[in-house]
Amino acid sequence: MSKRQNTAEEEAGAIDLTPMLDVVFIMLIFFIVTATFIKEPGVDVLKPEATTAELKAASILVAINENDEIWIAKEQVDDRLVKVTLERLYAENPKGWLVIQPDKEASIEKIALIADAARRIGIEKVSVATEKS
């Protein structure tokens, strides 16, 4: 008889973790859905220096290396496909903005090409990444 009483007492003192696990999984799903993922350009560049540089997060990163090659989302993109690629990325995150990361040796024509394509798509927030001097 004493065995039965001990088992009943143990069951009464046990904590049911199922509701807590449900809450944890719901929070995990919430954070995954609401997180913004940064897309890397795919190439490292040496940014030019500027005295007014400030740190900002971006949703679309475009890199231009020293050979004037344009890199978006870890892929080299031809000049003619820049607008199409930016349209696709902007459709994924219409509240985001564009950051152009040119190398010190990159030509201003490539920067202008990307900025012009972004403006024609409707991306109003465009900035150029620099190193603070």
TrEMBL record:
Key word Iron-sulfur present: no
Keywords for this protein: Cell membrane, Membrane, Protein transport, Transmembrane, Transmembrane helix, Transport
Pfam families linked: ExbD
InterPro entries the UniProt entry points to: ExbD
Membrane topology value: Single-pass membrane protein; Single-pass type II membrane protein
Subcellular location: Cell membrane
Keyword Magnesium found: no
Chief location bin: membrane
Transmembrane segments: 20-38
Similarity field: Belongs to the ExbD/TolR family.
PANTHER family documented for this protein: BIOPOLYMER TRANSPORT PROTEIN EXBD2, EXBD MEMBRANE COMPONENT OF PMF-DRIVEN MACROMOLECULE IMPORT SYSTEM
Protein name as annotated: Tol-Pal system protein TolR
